[in-house]
Write a structure and sequence with these properties.
Number of strands: 13
Number of helices: 4
Strand content: 35-45%
CATH class of one domain: Alpha Beta
Structural class: alpha+beta
Radius of gyration: 16 Å
Helix content: 10-25%
Strand order of the largest sheet: 4-5-6-7-11-8
Length: 208
């Protein structure tokens, strides 16, 4: 909670994966953000857990998505939201926790499919971020192929302390029709993944 307070409360967007809707997190979200949307992947004894997007503006569109882990039968969730920008455009935000345990990449690619449909029909900037569980060459290839098809660019981190599995990073931020002004990785023990901090600017400025 101290890390969220220190680095999250001034951000316009906070994308969490495996967020548990505890009273502490709900209080933080409602105290610092206009909107908090969650897609519970599964319900723990007390609190639902899944992706959660906190935003300083109310979404005008919200689409929850779920995909089951084929081996564990647990669900992984994704959330697509859209927010009005000062430029008059709509910003689409995709918060994803990708399927982890599966043989091959069929289920992995299947989870990306509905997200791709959302992005393809959107005219305007896009941010897609989260835990992609891209721990194999097959998964990395599928993810990069998807990014190319959606015209998404990857945010690069010069001092890269992202959580890795089998030598490959698990967390990514992709974007379209925006400029990256700053990007860093916060090294912390507050989570089993290190948060990614990215600042975007509109391609067109806010005069439009």
């Amino acid at each position: 909670m101290s890390v969220l307070q220190g680095f999250g409360k001034d951000a316009h967007l906070v994308l969490l994966q495996e967020a548990q809707a505890t009273p502490e997190l709900v209080k933080f979200a409602t105290s610092n953000y206009l909107a908090a949307d969650q897609v519970p992947a599964f319900v723990l004894p007390q609190h639902p857990s899944g992706v959660m997007t906190l935003a300083s503006a109310h979404p005008v569109y919200c689409c929850p998505l779920r995909e089951r882990e084929p081996l564990l039968r647990l669900a992984k969730s994704a959330l697509v939201t859209a927010y009005p920008l000062p430029t008059g455009e709509m910003l689409m935000v995709v918060n994803i926790h990708a399927v982890n345990f599966s043989l091959g990449v069929d289920v992995y690619s299947k989870q990306l499919g509905p997200i791709g449909e959302q992005i393809q029909h959107h005219r305007g900037p896009v941010i897609m971020a989260g835990d992609f569980n891209a721990w194999s060459r097959q998964r990395m290839n599928a993810l990069y192929r998807f990014a190319r098809e959606m015209s998404l660019r990857e945010v690069n981190f010069t001092d890269d302390h992202r959580r890795k599995a089998f030598g490959r990073p698990l967390d990514f931020v992709f974007y379209r029709d925006m400029k990256v002004s700053e990007a860093s990785v916060l090294v912390t023990r507050a989570s089993d993944h290190n948060p990614l901090l990215v600042e975007f600017n509109s391609l067109y400025g806010i005069e439009r």
